[in-house]
Structures are given as C-alpha cells and as structure tokens.
C-alpha cells in the first residue's frame, strides 16, 4: 500500500477519503475497518469508523482500498450520495498539484489552471470560525500569486443564499463566478458506442494519456496550449481515458473519462465548431460510458455551466439529471 500522507494527494488511498482496511488482530484473526481515513504516517493509519476511531499499524494491514461514500438517502447510488460526499468524489478526479486541509475544507493550488484546482473547496467545518477560515484562504492563495477563490456547493436553484458562508462572503464583497450544475446518472443506463454510430469517414481512438492532437483540441480554459500544470492534473485521477474522434487526420471531438471507487467522471467534452450537431458529443460520452462500465463504475457524474443550454440538452438526452450545483466566490480586489 502506498503512502497517502503526501499533500499532493496523488495516491490510491487519500487522507479524507473513505477506505476499508483489512488487518490482523492480536489473536491472529482478521477484521475490517471501514470509514474515513483521518491520517496516515509511516507506521499507522487512523480511520474514523461508525464504532469510533481505529488505529491500525501498517505492519498489520492485509489489504486496503478506497470505497465509495455511503448513501445519504434512499435511492440508486448516483442520487443517494450526499452533496458534500459527491464533491469529495469529484475532487479525486481532478487532483490539484498542492492541497492543504483546513478542517473539512480543502485549499488547492495548481499554478492557476482551472478553478477546480485553484480554489478552496468549502465542505463541512473548517475547524476555525468562518471569518478566520476565509482569511486563511486569502493568505493561502495570495502566497501563491493566485486570486482567492472559494468553491461553494448548494442545492440546484439559487446560489445557496441564507447559508452562513454564502452570506458572509456576499457581505464581504466576494463576487459570483461560473454557476455550475452537477449531473449524475447510473452508468448502466447511459448509451454505449454501439448505439451512437459515427458519420461516414470518422473513427474513434482512446488512450490512457492525452496526445498532442487531444491537447490541441482542449480549449476549455481559453488557453492556446495546455500548460504543464494542466497536463499533470489531466492524469491525476486513479485512472483516466482520453477519447478523440477523427475526421480523416483531424481531431474533431474529445472527452476525458476518469475513475474513482464506484464513480466515473466526464470532463473536457469539446467538439470542433464545424462538426457540431452531428452526434459527436453523444459518441464521446458513450465511449466514456463503455470504458466506465468495463471498470465497474456504477455511477457517472459531469459538470456543466448553468447557462450552457446546448450541453445541458445533450447530457439530459443521454440520461443525466441534476444532483446539485456549485459556484465560485472571488475575493474583492484590495
């Protein structure tokens, strides 16, 4: 088992994630510790289980693996998961270059590449008064030359008004950026590639890493090229697949699939403007769904800007429904 204590969190077991650890007992028998991994060092693992905190010596570990979060309500896994737990799942699909925890909050930095990797993910209790936590975020990002940014998850509809954090940020002049809907689906319900034929003359290629043609088509951040930080983030999940549709020798559509226990994620869905409305978006989604099914991911999520009507129609047609929403709050200029 690899060491999950690094702050960059690029390990199979991540501190803060849900795990099951099978370990020896003093009498020689074995048992499982299931819960959240609180801490890990060279000799022990600390796990918060339903029965209380368990400390397991690494020398006694027989097997260990990450597992999906528990359901928060009745229903299939993709709807039963709670908002904070799904946010934690998604964070493991787009890991930052640097992460510092503040209670339940995650302070992230990645040289400015994407809001997801350069914001504080405000989940649960930061362990200090909210005003102090916000100040810590400002200090963290300012020290790295970044604009302070806080990601706030909330129910779909509105911007989380009436919650203590949102009201505090609004009163402090933090402005709203990129309202986003989080959509989920049962992976088995998503169309497969066999159901979404390509136009004549086109073909699909997939690979575990993005090649130059895939990277050249990825323009989500409005950058002419993907920087080194971006390339590291794109391959930061437990596993990923890069899908591209080619028309002759030209890459005309792309998508990225990613994997964590029980979940697949879909990001970077883009189609060349000249090739839109030809079913290519549906096809790259289907390719990711087939890949996810082959790896046992029961649920799939994706994120879409709230005002992107065309993309939302595409995803709804494939079977995705809204789970919750989030947006960023941007610190006022000083």
Automatic annotation (TrEMBL):
It is an enzyme of class 2 (transferase). GO terms for molecular function: acyltransferase activity. Transmembrane segments: none annotated. Keywords: Acyltransferase, Transferase. The keyword Transferase applies. InterPro entries: Acyl_CoA_acyltransferase (IPR016181), GNAT_dom (IPR000182), Rv0428c-like_C (IPR056935), SH3_Rv0428c (IPR056934), YpeA/RimI_acetyltransf (IPR050680). Residues 202-334 form the N-acetyltransferase domain. It comes from the Bacteria. Its EC number is 2.3.1.-. This is GNAT family N-acetyltransferase. It comes from Kineococcus halophytocola.
């Amino acid at each position: 088992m690899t060491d999950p204590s690094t702050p960059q969190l690029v390990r199979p077991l991540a501190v803060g994630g849900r795990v099951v650890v099978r370990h020896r007992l003093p009498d020689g028998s074995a048992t499982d510790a299931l819960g959240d991994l609180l801490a890990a060092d060279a000799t022990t693992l600390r796990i918060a289980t339903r029965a209380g905190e368990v400390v397991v010596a690494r020398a006694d570990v027989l097997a260990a693996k990450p597992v999906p979060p528990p359901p928060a309500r009745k229903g299939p896994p993709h709807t039963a998961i709670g908002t904070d737990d799904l946010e934690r799942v998604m964070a493991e699909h787009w890991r930052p270059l640097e992460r510092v925890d503040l209670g339940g909050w995650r302070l992230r930095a990645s040289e400015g590449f994407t809001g997801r990797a350069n914001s504080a993910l405000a989940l649960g209790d930061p362990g200090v008064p909210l005003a102090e936590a916000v100040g810590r975020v400002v200090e963290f990002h300012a020290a790295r030359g970044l604009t302070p940014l806080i990601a706030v998850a909330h129910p779909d509809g509105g911007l989380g008004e009436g919650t203590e954090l949102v009201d505090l940020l609004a009163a402090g002049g933090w402005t709203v950026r990129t309202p986003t809907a989080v959509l989920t689906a049962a992976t088995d319900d998503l169309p497969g590639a066999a159901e979404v034929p390509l136009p004549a003359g086109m073909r699909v290629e997939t690979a575990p890493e993005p090649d130059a043609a895939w990277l050249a088509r990825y323009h989500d951040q409005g950058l002419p090229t993907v920087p080194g930080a971006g390339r590291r983030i794109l391959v930061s999940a437990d596993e990923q697949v890069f899908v591209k549709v080619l028309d002759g020798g030209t890459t005309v559509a792309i998508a990225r699939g990613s994997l964590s226990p029980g979940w697949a994620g879909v990001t970077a869905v883009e189609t060349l403007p000249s090739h839109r409305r030809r079913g290519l978006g549906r096809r790259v989604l289907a390719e990711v769904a087939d890949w996810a099914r082959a790896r046992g991911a029961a649920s799939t999520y994706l994120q879409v800007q709230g005002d992107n009507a065309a993309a939302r129609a595409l995803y709804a047609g494939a079977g995705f429904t809204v789970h919750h929403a989030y947006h960023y709050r941007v610190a006022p200029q000083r």
